[in-house]
Every structure is written in structure tokens, then in C-alpha cells.
Amino acid sequence: MTMQIWLTYIVTVLVLMSTPGPSQLLMLSNSASHGFRRSLATAAGDLSANALQMLASGLGLAVIIAASGQALLVIKWLGVAYLIWLGVRMVRQASAKSTLELGEQALVSLKTLWLQGFLTSAANPKAVVFFAALFPQFIQGDQDFWPQFLILSATYLVIDGVFLSVYGRAASWVANKFQGSAKVWIERCGGGFMLLAAILLSVRTM
Fold first, then answer.
1. What is the pLDDT of residue 86?
2. Which of 144, 104, 119, 138 shows the shortest CA–CA distance to 45?
3. Model-level pTM greater than 0.90?
4. Which residue, 88, 107, 134, 145, has fewest beta-carbon neighbours within 10 Å?
């Protein structure tokens, strides 16, 4: 893979990530509610799902998944339902009269935060098809497939991780500037981000 092809790929990925999706909105919500450092578990969950999706595309499973429209719909709507449940739960827990509840939210386990990130990303099964369509545009046929595939995959994960970190850091900074009832509204906005993520996932075709 030449440097020119790699740089072109980076620009392409940056353009594709310029609009926030469900995973970015989840990162915003969890970082505002639980702090930036703890929300990194959410980012790790998202990147774990992406890595598996890339591996599936590399192994040729994208063809099988693409042919199973019913399976795509089931996974997609399960993910939408999960995000709606998270959003409603967060809004209901954000009570100005109970600072204890807000403290309990900060103690959500890292495993739970990781799982939220993983399930939100995995709820978009067409990501496998997306990677299967994107990567061949930048892989040179006269060179070994797997080294190029690994470079493209690692590059995508790094860029995605940076984007998630920026979203998370910004949300955490804003949340730390507010206290009391104002912070409760930050929590409610976090729940709203969850619901918005569910809407984006429900209308997303790729």
C-alpha cells in the first residue's frame, strides 16, 4: 500500500465520520453522566464491535449477512429498542430532588459501559457490509491482502477512537461546569442523546 493511497483513505474516513452517529451520541451521554475516564469503556466497547465487524468483512461473512435481510432487521431493531430503554431510563433517573441517584449513576460498572458501547455499534450489522465495500477501494491487488487489511482496520479504529475521545472530553467538560439542578438537565440531555441515537439507528440504511 502506497502512502498516497493510505492518506486518501484517511481523508475518506474523516469525511465519513464528520457527522455524529449513534455511537458518538452514546459517548456524549456517558461522558456527561459518568465522566470522561469512565466513558472510555464505552469507546472501547464500540471499537471492539468495529474490530469484529472488520474481521467478519475480511473473512467474507459480509456476503452472508447481506443476503439475510431478516437477520439485519432483527439485529437493527433490537439495538433501537436497547437505546430507547437506555434513554428513557436516564431521563427518569435524572431527578433534581435526588442527588443520590446521580451519584449512583457515576458508579455504573465499566463492564456495563463497555457493553453499551459494544451493543450500540453491533446493532448496526450493515457495518460489516460497509467495511466490505470500503476496504477494497484501497487494497492493491498486487500486494498481500492481510497486511493491507490490518493497516486499514487499525487506521479506522485509531481515527474512530480519537473522534470518540474528543466527543467524550467535550461532554465531560460541559457537564463539570454545571452543578445541582443544571446538572440534572445535563443528565436529561444525555437521555435525549440516547433517544436521538435510537432514531438515527432506525433510519440508517448503511
1. 72
2. 119
3. no
4. 107
